[in-house]
Amino acid sequence: MSDDLFAAARAAMAFAHVPYSKFPVGAAIRAEDGRIYAGANIENLSFPQGWCAEPTAIGQMIMGGARKIVEIAVIAEKLPLCPPCGGCRQKIAEFATPQTRIYLCDDTGVKKTMTMPELLPFAFETEILG
Ligand code: THU
C-alpha cells in the first residue's frame, strides 16, 4: 500500500465525530480514477443513527464520480487492527472487484492485507437483483 493512502486514512481519523464511543476510525479508498477518498465515523446522540468511517469514504468516492474500490485502508486509534464491521463489509463489497485489496492498519502501517472474499466469505450474491 502506498504511503499516501495510509496517510489519508490516518488523517481522516482525526475528523471522527465520536463523543459516545470515543473510538475514532479512519478509512481511505483509492478508486479506479486514481484519486483518494477518505472518511471517518460520525456518531449521533440517537446511537443507531451514527455510521462508520468506511461508508463516509464510500460516499465521498461516489460523489467524486468514481465507482470502484482499488484499495481501501482502515485504521482505528485504539486497536492494533480494526476489522471492518459486518455492514461495512457488505458496503465495501458493493464497490469491490476481485482485485480489491483491504488494508487493516495500525499507527505504523499495514498489519493485514485481505481480499474481498477473505473479508466477506459466502457473500450475498444473486442475479435476480442484477
Ligand atoms: N466503526 C467504524 O467506523 N468502522 C468499523 O468497521 C467498525 C466500527 C465505528 C462505529 C462507531 O462509531 C465506533 O467505531 C465504535 O463502534
Strand residues, percent: 25-35%
**Radius of gyration using CA atoms only:** 14 Å
How much helix is in the residues?
25-40%
What's the number of structural domains? 1
Number of helices: 4
Q: What compounds are bound to the protein?
A: tetrahydrodeoxyuridine
Distance between the termini: 32 Å
Mean pLDDT: 96
CATH superfamily: Cytidine Deaminase, domain 2
CATH hierarchy: architecture = 3-Layer(aba) Sandwich
Biggest sheet architecture: 5 strands, mixed
> What is the overall silhouette?
globular
Q: Would you write up a description of this structure?
A:
This protein is of the alpha+beta class and 130 residues long. 27% of the residues lie in helices and 25% in strands. It has a single domain (3-129), classed as Cytidine Deaminase, domain 2. The chain has four helices and five strands; from the N terminus they run αββαβαββα. Strands 2-1-3-4-5 form a five-stranded mixed β-sheet. It is globular. The protein starts with a helix and ends in an 11-residue tail after the last helix. The relative contact order is 0.18. Bound molecules: tetrahydrodeoxyuridine (THU). The site of tetrahydrodeoxyuridine has 13 residues, from helix 2. Residues 18, 21, 23, 25, 41, 43, 50, 52-54, 84-85, 88 line the site of tetrahydrodeoxyuridine.
